[in-house]
Design brief:
- The structure holds 2 protein chains of 2 kinds.
- Chain A is of the alpha+beta class.
- Chain A is built from 5 helices and 10 strands.
- In chain A, 37% of the residues are buried.
- Helices cover 14% and strands 34% of the residues of chain B.
- Classes of the chains: A alpha+beta, B mainly beta.
- The interface between A and B is large, with 72 and 81 residues.
């Protein structure tokens, strides 16, 4: 193979991968999306969104949205291994990092599951630097105050523990959805007039009415807000407002306000792929909107039940630990 | 580590451990969990023991494996060992039957802050050294089998 032809092939391959990563190529345009019996584009199925693409882009990459294949390979770091020192048997000084099970032993490291490959350098694509915009000054002050108040009472009761620990809602569930690192599956189900969007972890299902106008939700509030959707060609557009303020978005310790809106777009881009796009607007937290995208791939079902509440011994044990620490401090006169 | 009278509980380097824990907590690569293990278990109570499996709970958000342990005095006590979410295991065909009752396991971890017979299983292995589930190595991708 000549140097020129090799270069050409690399360039073509790179362009193709970039196009797949962007989800907006000629190949995607040519794909004829199958229809349900009632005429909607088919997006339902079991999907995997496990990825090694970081949510925010490394600062040093600036506005570079995609790696080349060579850059992608070079960017991969060896998977963190368990701390070398044994818990107490080999003279190493244990630390908080040791107080954990080995995620690799349970197959929970991202590279131990099917990975949806993408050359994107970040999930966030808007703003162009691939990073969350800063909170407004006022929102940052509220966030700092909320963090301080939360830390002061964090072990007082079960209700003071994070939503995820209480098995109420994991932050990655959104909206917007974010890849979580393990148990990275989503099931989308369609029926006439509705789409159900369910995450494996932590088992929440959003039932999304499909309608031309925003329905009257009757004042009903949900942890994940009120979502409704409509079709724009082959793309399902979902708008969500009224997200519970206890569900804080990434980078903030306070929730989104009454003027917040999340828009998600789901487009089938091939026989086994969909593109998930999202944008987030809340003038109470950010001066600008932000958003991003990532591909998801069809995978084998079923999506295993998570049933978080049934086995959540951890929250009681954590509170027991806090009470024990209080007793110790009391004995020590602190 | 032998199969009997094998429990050892150590507390060492207290001040250094606390200082390092405070410094490193936010930098730990092992933070993908449902809750803070450092809040539930005590970094100053490292434990190592072996025991026979008497109960397996592959449940969410975390698995629990119950072991009967022989103490130095010859008594028996049951320890509960906390591990990871089992959903990936199910996907790979692993069930609670993959750890037969009576299996001898070796555990290294940290005991509950309240001194109860619970610990996080930092490593859990069969007595012959085999990994319990996966040997902390990448698993080759399997092709997506779903279709329309």
């Amino acid at each position: 193979m000549s140097m020129q032809s090799a270069s050409t092939r690399v360039a073509l391959a790179t362009a193709l991968l970039l196009a797949i990563g962007a989800g907006s190529s000629g190949a995607a345009d040519k794909y004829k999306v199958p229809r349900t019996s009632w005429g909607d584009p088919v997006i339902q199925g079991f999907y995997n969104n496990n990825t090694d693409v970081p949510f925010e882009r490394a600062r040093e990459l600036g506005d570079k949205a995609f790696y080349t294949e060579q850059e992608y390979a070079a960017s991969k770091q060896p998977r963190p291994q368990p701390p070398p020192q044994r818990a107490g048997g080999s003279g190493g000084v244990p630390n908080a990092a040791d107080v954990h099970y080995d995620t690799g032993e349970f197959g929970l490291d991202p590279d131990q599951s099917e990975m949806v490959k993408s050359l994107a350098t970040s999930i966030i694509t808007q703003p162009a630097n691939g990073r969350l915009p800063p909170l407004t000054r006022e929102a940052q002050q509220r966030s700092d105050a909320a963090r301080a108040a939360g830390q002061a009472r964090q072990y007082d009761s079960a209700q003071d523990r994070p939503l995820a620990e209480r098995c109420v809602l994991w932050p990655h569930e959104g909206p917007p959805l974010r890849p979580v690192g393990y148990n990275s599956h989503v099931q989308i189900t369609q029926s006439p007039g509705y789409v159900v969007f369910e995450t494996e972890m932590i088992h929440d299902a959003r039932i999304i009415p499909i309608t031309d106008q925003r329905p009257d939700f009757g004042g009903l509030t949900r942890w994940q807000g009120n979502s409704w959707g409509h079709w724009q060609g082959d793309t399902l557009v979902i708008e969500t407002t009224g997200i519970n303020e206890a569900s804080t978005p990434r980078g903030s310790n306070v929730g989104m306000g009454p003027d917040a809106k999340v828009v998600e777009k789901i487009t089938r881009t091939g026989p086994k792929t969909i593109l998930y796009e999202f944008s987030v607007t809340d003038p109470g937290l950010w001066d600008v909107s932000w958003g991003g995208q990532f591909p998801m791939e069809l995978t084998e079902g079923p999506m295993f039940e998570y049933a978080c509440h049934e086995g959540n011994y951890g929250i009681a044990n954590t509170l027991r630990g806090a009470r024990e620490e209080e007793k110790t401090k009391a004995r020590q006169g602190q | 580590m032998n199969n009997t009278a094998s429990m050892r509980i150590r507390a060492r380097h207290f001040l250094q451990a606390v200082a390092m824990a405070m410094c490193l907590a936010s930098a730990s690569p092992h933070v993908r969990a449902h809750h803070s293990f450092a809040a539930e278990f005590d970094v100053n109570r490292p434990v190592e023991f072996s025991g026979k499996v008497v109960k397996v709970e592959l449940i969410n958000p975390h698995s629990w494996i119950h072991l009967e342990v022989t103490t130095k005095s010859g008594g028996k006590e049951v320890w509960k060992v906390e591990g990871g979410s089992p959903n990936v295991l199910f996907r790979r065909g692993i069930t609670k039957n993959s750890i037969p009752l009576g299996s001898e396991l070796q555990v290294e971890g940290f005991q509950a802050r309240d001194g109860g017979n619970r610990c996080v299983g930092r490593t859990i292995k069969f007595a012959d050294g085999r990994a319990l589930f996966f040997d902390s190595t990448p698993i080759p991708d399997t092709p997506a089998a779903a279709s329309e």
